[in-house]
Structures are given as C-alpha cells and as structure tokens.
Amino acid sequence: MKIMDLKKVNDFIWEIEKDPLVGMRVPGRIFLSKTLLNFLELGAIQQVTNVAKLPGIQKYSFAMPDVHTGYGFPIGGVAAFDIMEGIISPGGVGFDINCGTRLLATGLKLEEVYPRITELINKLYTSIPSGLGSKGSLKVSEKELDQVFINGAKWALRNGYGNESDLKHCESNGHLESGDPSKISTLAKKRGMPQLGSLGSGNHFVEVQYVAEIYNKDVAHTFGLWENQVCIMIHSGSRGAGHQICTDYLRAFQSAASKYNIQIPDKQLACVPADSTEANDYFSAMSSAANYAWTNRQMMSFWVREVFEREFNAKANVVYDVAHNIAKLEKHKIDGETKEVYVHRKGATRSFDKDPSYGIGQPVLIPGSMGTSSYVLCGTKDAMEMAFGSTCHGAGRVLSRKAAKHKLGSKEVMEELRQKNVFIKTGNISDIPEEAPEAYKPIDEVISVVNKLNLSEVVLKLKPIGVIKG
After folding, report:
1. How far is CA 200 from CA 191, 204, 427, 468, in A?
2. Which residues of 437-454 are buried (b: 16+ CB within 10 A; e: fewer)?
3. Within 13 A of 162's CA, how many CA atoms are on the CB side?
4. Fewer beta carbons below 10 Å: N end or C end of the chain?
5. Is 37 in contact with 7 (CB distance < 8 Å)?
C-alpha cells in the first residue's frame, strides 16, 4: 500500500479499501488534511491495514490526525471488537497503559503568575519527582499498592489526597471495576511500588499554561475556564507497572495465539479471543494499571495544589482527566444495532457526546509538543457515530526520539523556548530535543482536522509559560 493508493472520501477522510485477498475484514480510515498527509508514514498505513485483519473488528480500522507508526497498532489507532467474536490485543493499548492528561484550573490570572514563573517551576520540580526511573515521595506497601490497583484514584481520596469533585471530573471516575492485582506479576508490582506519584520521562510533563483564546465562551465557562486564567496540565501514566504488565501479556499472548489458531499479520498484534480466560486476565491487569495511572495523576495533582496554595493562596480544581492508551468495554450503535464492544484506543482519547459531570459533551484535552499550544475541546455526537466516540491525543511525532536528538541541539531548543517566554526545568538537558516542536506535527493543523470533522469541537487554546519535562 502506497500513499497514492489511499482513496479520498472527502478533504479529511482517506480510506484504505477493504481487500479480502490480503485478509482485511473491514476498510481502514485515516483522518488527515492534505498538509498532514505529507507526514503520513507508509508503516502507519500498513499498521492500519493489519488491524483491519483482526477477528471481530467492527466498521473500520481508524487512525486519528496525529497518526504515526507504533507497536502493533499505530499511535492514533482506534478499533472496536465484538465481545464474542472479537479479540483483545495489548498492542492496541500500548506499554504506558492509561498514559493520560489532567487539566487543573486556578483562580489566578496570567499577570499574577508569570513574574514568578521561574520560582514556581523550580518549586513544582522539587515537589514532583520526574525523570527516567524516578521514584515517588509516597511510600506504599504491597498491600496498599494492591488497593491502588483495585480502587484507583478513590484510594488517594480515602487517604486524604483530594476531594470527591476530582473524581467527578475524571474519565470513569478514576476507577475501573475490573482491576484485579492477582492478575499482575510480582515484577510489575515491584516496578510500580516505588514510582507512585512520579512523572516519569519521555513525553511526560507538568506544564503551567494560560487560556490564550476562547472559541466557545458558553462551553468554556461551563468547564470553569476564562481568558488569561492560569491552568496546570499533567501528562503521565502507569509508569513501570503498566509497562511490565503489557510486556508480560504480550509474551503470554504470543504463545496463546497459536492455541486459538488466530492468524495475525504481525507478532506485535498478539491477541486472544475477547471471551477467553487470557483476555479476561489481561483486561483485569490492564484495568489495574489504568487505576494506578489515575492514582498517579491524583497524587501529582495534590502536590501541585500544595505549591499553589503555599505560594499564591490559590486553589486548583480538576477540569477533566482523560486516558490516551486504554481498552474499554462500551456500548455503541453499529449497523442500527446497539452492541457491546471492546474499544481499543492507542494514542487516542474519548470524545463522548455527553459527560454527566457537566451535562454537555465530555471535555477533551489535547496537548501540543513542548512549547506549543494545547487545546480543550468538547465531545460530539458525530464522534460517537464516526469513530466510536474517539479523537486524537496530541500532535503526533514526525521524528523519532533518536532522530530528534541527532538533528536538534539542546541549547538551541532551550533558546527557542526562552524566546517564546517559556521556562523549562528538567533533570536531563540532553533529552530536551526529543520533545521539541520540530519533532512533532503542527498541533494547530491537527486540531483543525478534528474540529472540521467534528470529532471534537474546539473550545479554547492554552499556551505554556513553564514546563517540567520528565
């Protein structure tokens, strides 16, 4: 398959036509503008095609506007599978299970915070452990960790780290019922125990931002957001625990696939029948990792709040928290019939047309690359009908981390951020080029596609003033 072989459905939908001769069960659909089409990798097209070959897949194999090549599924991949005839695949979730984004809103204005941004970022950096292998300041026993795996962010609240409104404005209320620590290896627990309440490395960040532009005032005000308001965005996931859980089950599924006689086009798509014991075990372990991630972001939110209360006597409320890498059991209308399906979102996020905590479409949080704008959007009915209530999760890489470090210099990237009046703090300056704007697609173009397709409705733009890079 070549880019020229994609069929243009309209200006923003490109289709890989279903070809039964290569084993495709459904077509593939990629949401792109002509500009973003220039960034599309052949490997990503092949991965969308491969996912379309998996048993029980419904409607289409989707790729969002931030699509790029990943492990098994493309990053930005979305697929739903029948609960009886379909499969579950760890490659459709990813290694950083429930890597996600949380937005906190303060009552402060930009002019109150920016003069002290260097001091503020330094204090946040001291309060929130970050970097490769970072360990949280919270020490938990194995018994307590099991409760985190079971109860998610509820565990944090029970231990004094937040309030009920935090969970009210959180996907799945920060908790999946199916979490079961007995389905997690000793190694996964060992890796997760010291890291609770830590940012990690890679593209994870804590960013101080302000509301720069509002496109829908009514929705923005419903979300508690207004112009020049200072916000904090946290991007992190399930750390070593989630990575090990994915590793463990990929290994197990690669053996189990032959047991169930499932033909897969790529070993990275190792999978088992959705109604099998192995699938249930993975779903429980994945749910546990998701619960860990929600607790992790809840703990970091608590320490962010402590800093803002101490330095500015200001509170910070949760606007919303969304997962980027997760499989969920959901009901969707397919061919006129409501069906239960396992929706895999890999580097993609929910965009539901209704959120009970606000009474309107769900808040959607889409961060840009380091130093560029992030966006708050609103879920839509069209997203429910078009892509199982899904949208993109960020800008999407165009350079691998290795390539970015080879091409870009740390000092140059830091100077570029300084000229944009963005202060950065990191424990490893040499890794800064990995998250430079040049390593990613243009976020404004990605958001434009999402908005024009109505996968999400754009509400407002956030601009950074300070960032802690993991």
Report:
1. 12, 6, 11, 11
2. bebbbbbebbbbbbbebe
3. 29
4. N
5. no
Give the count of beta carbons closer than 10 Å to the beta carbon of residue 99: 25
What is the rounded CA–CA span in Å between residue 93 and residue 283? Answer: 11
Counted domains in the chain:
1
CATH of the domain at 170: 3.90.1860.10
Its domain, for residue 13, covers 3-90+99-469
Q: What is the separation of C-alpha 162 from the centre of its chain, rounded to a whole number of angstroms? A: 22
pTM of the model: 0.96
SS3 12: coil
Residue 393 a catalytic site member: yes
Q: What 3-state class would DSSP assign to 462?
A: strand
* Closest residue by Cα to residue 290 from 94, 46, 125: 94
Tens of pLDDT, residues 19-35:
999 999 999 999 999 99
Distances (CA, A) of 419 to 278, 371, 416: 52, 10, 5
Backbone angles phi, psi at 416, to 5 degrees: -60, -40
- At 319-365, the pLDDT tens digits run 999 999 999 999 999 999 999 999 999 999 999 999 999 999 999 99
Q: Which residue from 205, 227, 206, 204 is spatially nearest to 217, judged by alpha carbons?
A: 227
Residue of 175, 235, 393, 406 with catalytic role = 393
Please give the torsion angle defined by the CA atoms of residues 66, 69, 75 and 78, in that order, rounded to the nearest 10 degrees.
Answer: 100
Q: What is the DSSP string of 287-303?
A: HHHHHHHHHHHHHHHHH
